[in-house]
Design a protein that fits this description.
Blueprint (H helix, E strand, L loop, with lengths): L1 E10 L2 E11 L4 E5 L6 H8 L7 E6 L2 E2 L2 H4 L2 E4 L11 H11 L4 H14 L15 H13 L5 E5 L7 H16 L4 E4 L3 H7 L2 E6 L2 E7 H7 L4 E6 L12 E7 L2 E6 L2 H14 L2 E6 L4 H9 L1
Parallel strand pairs: 3-8, 3-9, 6-7, 7-8
Antiparallel strand pairs: 1-2, 1-4, 4-5, 9-10, 11-13, 11-14, 12-13
Amino acid sequence: MLEIRDVSKSYGTRRVLDDVSFDVAPGRMTGFVGGNGAGKTTTMRIVLGVLEPDAGTVTLDGAPLGPTGRRRFGYMPEERGLYPKMKLAEQLVYLARLHGLTPADAKRNTDELLARLSLAERAGDAIEKLSLGNQQRAQIAAALVHDPEVLMLDEPFSGLDPMAVDVVAEVLSERARRGLPVLFSSHQLDIVERLCDDLVIIAGGTIRAAGSRDALREQHATLRYQLQTDGDAGWVREQPGVAVIEADGGYALFDAETPEAAQRVLEAAVARGAVSDFARQHPSLSQIFKEVVR
């Protein structure tokens, strides 16, 4: 378990982090989201020891993090950080060797990652000769090549086409299934919502919401329901305790004052004929984000 507790950081009079606390649990993908300047990268740099906090602690499995503990991390920065003129495979082997892997293990890991990330045909290319999307996948390979025990990635899906997003997402999800804590930041809320188990939303240097994806969706959900019937659903407008948002043929989207009011609508619909769908709508991550940061 990676634990960030009461971390604060200021530059002069500007406070960029204010009592930031959250956990990254083993075997779970945690999405770290916020606008530009919200404090995501500063938080990650403090976890990695690149920056010192003014206050607060960062621990891994209950122990304070030092240089030895941080060697267990795999990190992908948002900025390009690889040697541009070095060949891709040689560079990955070199980075793995710096982390203590044997030559054989470093080569095996490199070959496996290049295959998984669809980069095998580019193994002999210099980094600067790769497309931007392939450079991004190369950065991800560099974060994974030494078999880290914790993963932290800053905007890992930036510049990737939809097929590459799926490839990278599966590789990261596989690492989480092995039991690794995985923290990744992203502006692409649809990808975060699809992949993450847990969410941390930061704005203005403070944590505005944190928890499991499902718990946050439930916490911020309204009593909004959708109904699909075989007949005309216009009658829902006349039901007490509901406000219709949209009605079209047999479809109705409505807000209910209470769960009981929604149940009465369902009972009335069943009495009128076949009901093919009746479900409570949960907010998207984008809606939750807008709500908590405003």
